[in-house]
Design goal:
This protein is of the alpha+beta class and 289 residues long. It has ten helices and four strands. It has two domains: 182 residues, no CATH class; 76 residues, no CATH class. A four-stranded antiparallel beta sheet has the order 2-3-1-4. The protein is rod-shaped, with a radius of gyration of 31 Å. The two termini are 26 Å apart.
Length: 289
Amino acid sequence: MLNWFFVPPAERRLLGTARLGGPTPWVVAIMSFSIMLIAATGLALANTAGVLSHAIDSRYALEVPGGGANLEALLRTVRASPGVTTADAVPETDMRKTLERWLGPTAQSADLPVPALINFDIRDPNGLNAVQQRAQVIAPGARIIAHRASVAPLLQSLGLLQAVTFGLVVLLSIAAASAVVLAARGALDTHRFTIEVMHGIGATDLQVTHLFQRKILIDAFVGSVAGGVAASLVLVALAGGAAFAGDLTGGATLGLRDFLILALLPFALTALATWVARTAVLRALRQAL
């Protein structure tokens, strides 16, 4: 099946003896480098969105308007409610300290109403009504807010960024394939006399195509691997920052599956380049007849 790759030295010299002298390896290397970095970004965004979505899937907040005069009693009530696994209070003083970063001393003013919060996890969302009814007995204005609703815009933005990164990977792959097609057609024009001689002595279009296919495969493979190695070095250099970002997002960095996908990208780009080169050369030869 791969006999076309193992050709005698005499047949290799038909297309010249220069190795990796054309622009194809450099173009493919640049594309491979860009594709790997963009793909790594997309995978990291997907992991972050997954961790965040899982963390807030059963996370809710009980908002207590006017502060937490009965906050301890409310906290005991929430913890005692059916299905509640964890519950933690965020007192009014802590809320004011947080707001002080943006509002300054105004955040400590008694004229500024600041609610108290109780964050809790519940196994079954159907039990939220019971939690709210119990809380309203102590604080009539208390209401439950789903964390998912609060961060929905962020999740939508992460999803959009993932789509953008996927689209960029596809566009760069198409650009790399287009560059390879142009290089293959240029090589056909350069070696047109040699091709005519080969046809004259009985060589078929497929045999001629195999020579170009082998050269493109080698150029694309070297370029893809070189770009992949360069991208890997960049990712390793950014590993410290990625670990810090992982701490902020609950450990949402690149995993083993992600590294496997990234490692396969240069080979996928090589396969794509070889296929489009074969298709372009074979079609051009058949149209020339």
